[in-house]
Write a structure and sequence with these properties.
- By secondary structure, this protein is α/β, with parallel strands linked by helices.
- Helices cover 41% and strands 22% of the residues.
- It is built from 7 helices and 9 strands.
- A hairpin with a 2-residue loop joins strand 5 and strand 6 (81-86).
- Helix 1 crosses helix 7 (173-185) and helix 5 runs antiparallel to helix 6.
- The radius of gyration is 16 Å and the shape is globular.
- Bound molecules: adenosine-5'-diphosphate and guanosine-5'-monophosphate.
Amino acid sequence: MSVEQLGKLIVITGPSGVGKGTIVSLLLQRYPQLRVSVSATTRQPRSGETEGINYYFLSQKDFETAILNHELLEWAEYAGNYYGTPKAQVLEQIEQGNYVILEIELRGARAIANMFPAACRIFIMPPSIEELEQRIRSRGKNSEESIVQRLKIAREEMAAKDEFEVQIVNDDLEKAISKLEKAIFSENTE
Ligand code: ADP
Ligand code: 5GP
């Protein structure tokens, strides 16, 4: 099925703490017609996170069942937990002609790029690794162990930025959003 012909798939990746969630939620406030895929994960909810809004929080067993039943478009293990994109909701939204944003880590982004070559692929970079660490710490939602793990993964992910057709440095938030708007609403649909 050539879903690319209908709506548009937008893959946003970049290291944890770079500001992906912040950028996407501001973009959604401005463009309510955009859709964001809600991922499944086995990690524990953080304070303030809501089932079905931030993630579908699954047990490891249920996540593995979803994998076996081919219910996920892509999935990856990240920092000791599973994360994956529910297939049905994304395909349905695209078929309805909607623009759908996937905010996912590098391996998932690569998998989507292989499946949907027409997807718009965006990599968000931090101004520096020091600023990234500062943002993860100031967000205050990760343990020290998890922060160290995320920074290690961040270095690996940032080495892959050239694989993405659009790279945006999230220094000034408004400038980053404006570049993202241009990338999403450009006319290069295939
Ligand atoms: P991600 O979704 O990529 O893990 P978040 O959106 O949770 O990242 O952002 C991590 C932290 O960085 C948050 O505290 C957020 O307020 C802050 N942040 C996001 N963008 C910027 C920016 N341009 N300048 C300074 N701080 C930012
Ligand atoms: P967090 O625990 O900070 O919410 O997310 C950790 C990482 O998992 C982030 O880089 C986030 O983009 C990524 N992620 C979230 N949902 C998915 C998903 O469905 N698939 C993949 N591959 N990564 C995801």
